Amino acid sequence: ERGAGRRGGARRTMATAAAAAAPGRARRGAPMYSKELTSKKRDEFEDILEERRLSSDLRYAMKCYTPVIYKGLSPCKPNAIKSAVLQSEQVQYVIKQLAKEMGESPDIIQEEATEILDEMGHRMQLGAVRFFAFTLSKIFKQLFQRVCVNEEGMQRLQHAIQEHPVVLLPSHRSYIDFLMLSYLLYTYDLALPVIAAGIGKYVFNYFLGMKIVGELLRRAGAFFMRRSFGGNRLYWAVFAEYVKTMLRSGYAPIEFFLEGTRSRTAKTLTPKFGLLSIVMEPFFKREVFDTYLVPISISYERILEESLYAYELLGVPKPKESTSGLLKARRILSDNFGTIHIYVGQPVSLRTLASGRINRCPYNLVPRHLPQKPSEDIQEFVSDVAYKMELLQIENMVLSPWVLVAAVLLQNLPAMEFELLIEKTLWLKGLTQTFGGFIEWPDNLCAKKAVLSGLTLHSNIARLVDGHVLLNDKAVEDGAVGEIVFGRALAVLMCATYRNQLLNVFVRPALVAVALQMTPSFRKEEVYSCFSFLRDVFSDEFIFFPGISLKDFEEGCFLLTKCDAIQTSQQEIYPTDKGSGTVSFLSAMFRPFVEGYQLIFRYLSKETKEAFTEKQFIPGVRNFVFQLLEKGSTQCYEALSSDMQKNALSAVVQLGAVKKKKM
Q1: Is-contact 332 352, C-beta < 8 A?
Q2: For the whole model, what pTM was predicted?
């Protein structure tokens, strides 16, 4: 990425951007997403490991498995899918076009298409599925206390699979996600999904580099795609037709991750649109009557890769994966990772979403096999659907008491009295529920036990010493200054992973609170202008539905009014005496992002050259922040996170303070 303008350009642009900030281009019609601000009844959860602990895993794996499938069709074999793809009009058209352009024989291009399919395609076999059912039962019982799922969601999913093609859209926080839904659907006798396992670069390198695991995953329903194939027309045609053939035939539910890769911070990543656009195309072309999109929220009480993620965010390269390395990882089986909650959301009809919004007639004017660039309206629609699905995932994330503890603890470093931590955690529980957060807190569990339980489960992050709770960076207390900073940053980022799960519940009221503190007056217009600017700046940091800045502002004000933190009139917004603590807490919760971005913008305006690449930017800004931490000039350890650094750079590009050029 290349910069443009003089060094002061970024600083000057940022200083004036608040006044010029405006919501994005208005969407056609009413907004597709509208959050329910009234409390709703939550589905009950059932622990699927309970039965596994009481009966034979072998009997479970070898059970009679006869899932009900789409409209009673007989499942076709993977090879039949491949043949249909190779013989399809779309792939044959591209083969002929490429042969003509390159002066090659169509047979040679056809052979290349066959090789692409062999590299890409799944080879689902019931034997491999049974192997994973047995193995994962053993592993899950070792790793987790419970794996809980909402049964009503499974019933809704069963009905949807029989009626229409189904696309499963789970959140993505861990490698465990890859086979969790397959395990779940096998448990409930539902059709197993085919899983797009190569959206991000890591999956391709990770799984295909481990031949044994890669082959097992293929046989369990995984299909792989290359890291990048933007300019390869043949690869794109084969891949798109492969996915659409499986969707049209109702062969199996299709599963992929909208985020594209695992979130290293436990915040939802901005969505990728490519695969979503592909699965929508059969509906646009009237090849299917409807398609159901199912948002699925997978919440971890403790994330397996928490330590690995923190190291990655600090620039320590992750170890090269291999099958032997995977086997060495068996030591984690002696650890406890608490509970997983899986919330299967309400299936969303693509037909209903498109009604009154999308005109499908233009697709009828062009033969179906001809490649067609999506119109601006279609691209906007795909984007809106992606954000809607992610916001539905966020709504149904389950928060553990430890998430609240982490949020309080990070505002009271280096240590906090245990009794005060309990008091603040209980207060935050009430505020989270007022804001619509979904907390798993048993009725009979007192606050002290909840906090102690969290500290026990996360003893690698924090500990109780002499009536005080502090982060676990003790190992580097006697080291050099640089080692102390790195150790503390590691502890802060691991703790922040859990606090981050709370941020999407709080982001709108919190940005109103921050805007109130940054704005010199209480005039509603000025507070909104500042809120809108902050929302634009943090558009890659948090998930906001496009084009509804005013609606988000009104939601934030409504929630702050609901907890008596502010009062509003037609012209003004001002904090109440009672709500000053709430406004201060919310502002402090988001201070690492405000301060972190300020440090990164300071680096951009003072330290960078006229032009730079992202590979130069990340280590450069990391060294800049590291030096400030060593001097004691800042305490913002989260500014060392490569995730925040990339998001901040993206923000200044979108705001026009930095210009991006492809080289």
Answers
A1: no
A2: 0.90
